[in-house]
Amino acid sequence: xxxxxxxAVIKPKEVDFDTLSIEELNEYILELEKEIEKAKQYISxxxxxxxNAEELFKK
Length: 59
Description:
Blueprint: H1 22-58
């Protein structure tokens, strides 16, 4: 079984955009971009770990 299947799925909280100012919306976008970058780095790290494991077990 793949361990990725066991990890919890985090659902983002819903945001009422009608209540946010332009500045708050820009801040929200920046926060999301930071989270996206963290997720991309995590994906890259997991990919490297998987590749290392596959190389180890091929020997």
